[in-house]
Amino acid sequence: MNANEIVVVRPGPSALVVDRGRFGYLGIGVSWCGAADLLALSIANRLVGNDGAAAAVEITFGGAAFCFGRRTRFALAGADCPASLDGERIATWSSHDAPAGSTLEIGASRCGVRTLLAVRGGIDVPQAMGSRTTDLAAGIGGLNGRRLATKDRLPVGAAPALAYAKALAVEPPDFYRERGQKVEIGMIPGGEQASFPKEAQAALWSMPWRVSPQSNRMACLLEGAPLSTRGVPEMRSHAVVPGVVQVPHSGLPLVLLCDAQTTGGYPKAGVIAEADLWKMAQVEPGVCVRFKPVTIEQSAAATRGIAAYLAAMENAIAAQSVQA
Amino acid sequence: MGDAVISRLGQSAIVLDAPGDLSLEVQRRIWALARAARGWPHVREAVPGMNNLTLIFDWKHEDAQALSSRLREAWDSRLSLDFARYARSARDDKKNPRGNAPIEIPVRYGGEDGPDLALVARHAGLSEEQVIERHAAIEYVVYFLGFKPGFAYLGGLDPRLATPRRKEPRARIAAGSVGIGGEQTGVYAVQSPGGWQLIGRTTLELFNPQRDTAALLSPGDIVRFVRTS
């Protein structure tokens, strides 16, 4: 095997091809999908010299292995997993050059849920409706619209024209080092929250919410003391997007993620701050989150902070680059 | 009719809620507004719901206040007067002009294709034959699409046929299955789990990403079910 492709040796519990998402089709019921952790996708892509929109592989809970057909620059970002290349331990959040025929082993994740594997040139599956991302509901994108399976072959695109940088590394986000067993998540209050009973509004912010093992790419389901939505008016069906926090009849809030259905009818408590949404997708079952109220301005500032961080990273990469 | 309520939802969305009772007339204005808003700068998505409209916008380049004002002006100017024109151009997009003729969906009712037909009939106090006749007699209106790819929310079900959803949803419902869930009827456009009572199945592809227009149905379309068995 020496084609420019990578072979799935073992996909782990769930792995699929993702990019930033498929936009413009919410009106016909097609979700954005894309990587559940867009920050990790952006970083992994930059570490290998791609632009942020290239497609990568999202691995859930680790436990996956891949074999490289050609010498390939790759990087891992997101959930912390022990990783090795032909048996030699390698660091995540850094780029490496895999020799032709080498095997990347990714162990079970120790912190976080989803690890992004980016390769220089990107995963070059055909676009469907303007994106390479897998949409399991529509059955499009990625590899035939499905999760990856053992022996699948993923084509790798031509290397980008960008100057060839030497191997790079970044510090992982503080989230992975400092979080302990409680994670703070910013939420912009909104939707019907103001019509929730006062005690329910208070409890939403003060109570710890434990991530349920039933969570998936559609929604992060939370467990805790149920909130009363007594008196909240019946909702007409309306559009929903990733980040919206719904409180269904069970009283247990849920946070919609990338694969969320496009319309819904449950009362809403607010929307997760854009800069924190990736964290919701990385909190593993059993770990608790607390919601912290943020204003639209604070949320915008945090998002700009991430954009500035990524821009600085690009500059650093350009500074380290040499012409190919 | 009072003023529409426009509210911000998070950083990147604004929502227009039409006042008053649910109506098709209001929904026509929602369709026209959605169509117009898709052409505005920095609007990434315009998604109609049931008498409401959500705009997703690029907040780095568009001020929510300005966008809300524009939305309110457009709503107040009663774009729906021009709806006929919008509907025509929507059809031209599909390169399949069909005027206002209903879209016919051929359905095999009952049997393996509609395992819950008997239950719906019992619930309605009708024969299976009568359920089929009533279901196929109506011209339904596509209010909006959502939930799953290509899934259309249809208005117009005969209230007599309304049947509660199944207590235990099915894990896998085949694409093309025609069902009744509460006071709604519709077609599962892609294979998915679901709790509706299944009364038949169509071979028509309601969602096909290979087509120019992936979703067969658009808001404003008129739909008729035609019995093939």
Q: What can you tell me about this protein's structure?
A:
- The complex is a heterodimer of chains A (324) and B (229).
- Chain A has helices at residues 38-47, 174-178, 198-206, 277-280, 296-320, and strands spanning 5-10, 14-18, 56-60, 62-68, 72-80, 83-85, 88-90, 95-98, 103-108, 111-119, 153-155, 164-165, 182-189, 209-211, 219-223, 238-239, 244-246, 254-256, 263-264, 268-272, 288-293, 321-322.
- Chain A contains five helices and 22 strands.
- In chain A, helix 1 (38-47) runs parallel beside helix 5.
- By secondary structure, chain A is of the alpha+beta class.
- In chain A, the strands form five sheets. A seven-stranded mixed beta barrel of chain A has the order 13-20-17-18-15-14-21. A six-stranded antiparallel sheet of chain A has the order 7-6-9-4-1-11, with no helix packed on it. A five-stranded antiparallel sheet of chain A has the order 2-3-10-5-8.
- Chain B is an alpha+beta fold.
- Chain B contains five helices and 13 strands.
- In chain B, strand 9 (177-181) and strand 10 (184-187) form a beta hairpin.
- The longest helix of chain B is centred in the first third of the chain and has 14 residues, at 24-37.
- Mean pLDDT of chain B is 90; it is low at 91-98.
- Classes of the chains: A alpha+beta (324), B alpha+beta (229).
